[in-house]
Each structure stands twice: as C-alpha cells, then as structure tokens.
Amino acid sequence: MYSFYLAIVRHKDHFLFVLTLLLSFILLLNNDDPKMGNIRGKAAEVISFVSSPVALAKSLMYLEGENQLLREKTLSLSLQVESMLNLQKENDELLSMLDFKRQTKLLIRPARVVNKGIQPNLLSIVIDGGKNDGISKNQAVLTPKGIIGKTIESGDKASIVQLITDTNFRLSVRILPSGATGIMRILRGSTAQIREVQKNVLINIGDKVVTSGFSDIYPPGLPVGTVEGVYEDRSSFQKVVNVTLPNDMSAFQYVFVIIEKINEVD
After folding, report:
1. pTM of the full structure
2. 159 Cβ partners below 8 Å, 6+ apart?
3. 63, 83, 132, 174: which has the highest count of C-beta atoms within 10 A?
4. Could you read off the pLDDT tens digit of each residue along the chain, which spans 266 residues?
5. Closest Cα partner for 207 from 228, 223, 221, 186?
6. Strand, coil or helix: what is 175?
C-alpha cells in the first residue's frame, strides 16, 4: 500500500492529467448542449470504428467454433445413418436366410463370414463353423441366392471356403428348361462360363442355371446363376454359355453349409 502511495506521489502530474481528462469527458458527455450531441456522435463513430475489427474477430471465432460443432454433429448423424443402413441390410440378409432354411429340405448349418482367406493364390473366405458344428471338408456352401463355393479345410471351430470366383473352381451345372449340362468356371467379375454344351440344345438368355447333381459335393437343383449370353464355338460341336452369378462376393455376411445331401430341393 505504501509503495502504491509513493508511485502516485512520484507520478502525480500524470495521474492528475488522466483524472482531469476522465472528468472532462464525463462532463462533456453528460452535457445537454446540442453541440455536445455532435461530439458524442463523432466519439461513438470513433469507438465503433476502433471496436469493429475486434467485434469481427470475435464473431469469426464464434462462427468457427459453431461450424466445428456443426461438422461434428453432421459426422455423428452420418455415422448413425450408415449404421442403421448396415443393420437394415444385415436384418434383410438374416430374414432371407431364415426363409430359405424354412423352405429347404437339406440339412444345413448357418455360419458367419469372419475373414478373407489366408492363401494368396486362392480366392476364399473363413467362416465361424467347423467340425464341432458338423462341417467338414468338401461340403457345399451357399446363400439363399445361390452357390458361393465349397469347404476345403475344416478345423474344430472354423473352416476355409473356396469361392466360386476362384480361377481353379469347377462346377457341373444344368441349364433349365433345356436340361443341357456342362462345366462352369469363372470368366471375369461376376460372370462365369459354361463349356461342353451341345450345339443342338436350345438355350435362351434368362434361363436358370442350377447344379446338375453329378458331383458328390453338390445336390441337384441348387441355384447357380442366370444365362446372359449364348455363343457358338466354331472349333467344335459345342456352345459356350455365359452366366451371371447372383451373389456379390464382397457383400454377404452369412452362409449355409450343406451337412447332408438329399435327392431333391424345393
């Protein structure tokens, strides 16, 4: 307190000047004279000019914070919508599988896709079903839309499934309603090709392709795909038939494994 008093005494001239200036401003601003009104207006303009950049900076800072909050809310809502869409898709897939299980006469086990295959030279997936679930090597794997492959290795709780889109995969199929048979292999993407089809058989675009039943793995009549093109093989007495596969190999999450075959599928 004593040092504060000494500072005032030491700078009394400056202190008195500031105090007098403040009192003068107070008296001038409280004066009702019209001329003082003009001065007060000019003073307000000066204060407004000086304060505008500060107010603008504060406004920009507020807007930036508000925009950041809005961006966070938008991202949160987008993630919620995406999650709901994924849940809807998964629910639709499960309902389709449940309906398929009710209609089929096959003894099947459901399984979930848990990973991609571990072999670099083989297109495959890993499912969470194994020997403990009755799943073993060389069993047909499908979805309600159609065949997707076969089991090639089986552990106690997991199995590896070779996909129908693997270049080494072969499948004996039948084209309906003609009844023509052939060997199908993948061509590109979701398109497969059937060879060894007799030329004299009538095949149309849109015909259904199913398993022939000649294989020890696949029961007859399981859906495989739809004919999308028929071509003459000039070098032989056979036709080449292109087939569209119904399953998106990067999208399904659940599959069925056929545990026991029968002679008929609804």
Report:
1. 0.61
2. 111, 126, 127, 129, 130, 135, 151, 153, 257
3. 174
4. 656 566 666 666 666 666 776 666 665 556 555 555 566 566 566 666 666 676 666 676 777 767 777 776 766 666 566 656 556 665 665 556 566 555 566 788 889 899 887 777 889 999 999 999 999 999 999 888 889 999 999 999 999 999 999 999 999 999 999 999 999 999 988 899 998 898 889 999 999 999 998 888 998 888 999 999 999 877 778 889 999 998 888 778 888 899 876 544 44
5. 228
6. strand
Query: Per the structure block, which two tokens stand in for 70?
Result: 């809005």
Architecture of domain 108-260: Beta Barrel (2.40)
Instruction: Quickly count: other Cβ atoms within 10 Å of residue 111's Cβ.
Output: 23
Please answer whether residues 254 and 209 qualify as being in contact, where contact means their C-beta atoms are separated by less than 8 angstroms. Answer: no
Q: For residue 204, give the 3-state DSSP assignment.
A: coil
SS3 148: strand
